[in-house]
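Quick entry between incubations.
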Amino acid sequence: AQTVTQSQPEMSVQEAETVTLSCTYDTSESNYYLFWYKQPPSRQMILVIRQEAYKQQNATENRFSVNFQKAAKSFSLKISDSQLGDTAMYFCAFMKHGSGTASKLTFGTGTRLQVTL
Amino acid sequence: DTAVSQTPKYLVTQMGNDKSIKCEQNLGHDTMYWYKQDSKKFLKIMFSYNNKELIINETVPNRFSPKSPDKAHLNLHINSLELGDSAVYFCASSQQGRQTQYFGPGTRLLVL
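Done. Structure below.
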């Protein structure tokens, strides 16, 4: 079974600064997908970024980028130029490659990020 | 133009009651999911349907019964509600072969 660990329950960053959220996972699969989802106080789950394990290049989406280290099973999220609207819970998630029963997301316990003035 | 919608958004009920939560997606996806988020914010898969067929059924009490009348709808019926069922229930959808799941706004269930 896969497990996802987020070791930082809470983090704080000042507006315009950069912050990195950590995520490690455990799997015996060689092909899989990794995701970061954001859950603001509105409760909505919003996809931030995704990474395919077979791609060596780290994914980026505007101010959001990941550092994917496959050998170390590490998938950290870097938020640059933090904005007040980035205040949210951030969840790291894992999905096996394949369809059917493989398609479930396994989530970490989340990191609560507070962006301050 | 809501992509994944859930009704109701809030549900307060007494122990022992039976309740349903409805989910609809207009993305044309063929796979839908139910996730449960507990009081500590932990999210866990409950069920998944692909083209109206149950494909994922995690260890969930059989008081929970999903029903998919068509590809665009996935409902969750809960019998004999217990205090521990209090949680936020998220519906999500995806297209088979594409990994990104799109979530609904969640239904906060409070059992008194």
